[in-house]
Write a structure and sequence with these properties.
Shape: globular
CATH class: Alpha Beta
Protein name: Acyl-CoA N-acyltransferase
Order of helices and strands: EHHEEHHHHEHEHE
Structural class: alpha+beta
Mean pLDDT: 95
Radius of gyration: 16 Å
GO molecular function, one term: acyltransferase activity, transferring groups other than amino-acyl groups
Number of domains: 1
Helix content: 25-40%
Oligomer: single chain
CATH architecture: 3-Layer(aba) Sandwich
Pfam family, one: Acetyltransf_1
GO biological process, one term: glycoprotein metabolic process
Strand order of the largest sheet: 1-2-3-4
Distance between the termini: 19 Å
Number of strands: 6
Organism: Lentinula raphanica
CATH topology: Aminopeptidase
Strand content: 15-25%
């Protein structure tokens, strides 16, 4: 297996969306939960190669015709990301996906979310303006690639003058929580439940 890591591109959007769907049910595939399988990615993956203040890195498997098999994406400025998407991203999706189209609960949840998107807590933004999401196809788990993706992200964010990053996670995904704890993420006082932060200045080994 020959894996390389590179910056995420706008052209990666369809693959990022697919990976998001295949990991959207607490790390497992959510295909059976959706008639509109693109919906999870339109929230948690695709915007990060489409709108300002975003960044991302992808894992590419050379033995699968350079297929993208994992990613880490985020924003350097969460409030700016929220402001831009509120004006330019969510409204067009709300128009395209009215809740009346939903035949499954998971689809309805996302379609309603387009009309009332959550915002980060003040505690999270005070910890760091930067947030992130990471997803890797299951067959590439437990091989150190999550740590390598995170290392690429931390190096980039440090170069942008940032000192930390935070994320939210599905409380059912115990494997993800264990990974984040191993690389130094911690629950921070004032954070909502199931949110964790990483300070780069701490003695944390992510490479």
């Amino acid at each position: 297996m020959t894996i390389t890591i590179r910056k995420a591109l706008d052209t990666d959007a369809p693959t990022l969306s697919r990976i998001c769907l295949l990991t959207a049910d607490a790390g497992s595939t959510a295909e059976a939960l959706h008639d509109f399988g693109e919906l999870p990615g339109l929230v948690y993956a695709v915007p990060y190669v489409k709108v300002p203040t975003t960044w991302g890195f992808v894992m590419v498997d050379d033995l699968r015709d350079n297929e993208v098999v994992g990613y880490i994406v985020g924003s350097t400025d969460t409030r700016a990301f929220e402001s831009y998407t509120a004006e330019h991203w969510w409204p067009q999706l709300a128009e395209k996906y009215p809740p009346s189209m939903a035949g499954k609960e998971a689809d309805a949840r996302y379609m309603n979310l387009f009309r009332n998107m959550f915002k980060a807590s003040d505690a999270c933004v005070a910890f760091s303006p930067a947030h992130m999401h990471i997803n890797i196809l299951p067959e590439y788990h437990q091989q150190g690639w999550g740590r390598k993706l995170l290392s690429s992200a931390v190096k980039f964010l440090k170069g942008e003058g940032l000192s930390g990053v935070w994320l939210g996670l599905d409380p059912r995904n115990s494997g993800a929580r264990a990974f984040y704890e191993r690389v130094g993420f911690r629950h921070v006082d004032g954070f909502p439940d199931n949110y964790m932060g990483l300070k780069f200045g701490e003695d944390v080994e992510v490479s």
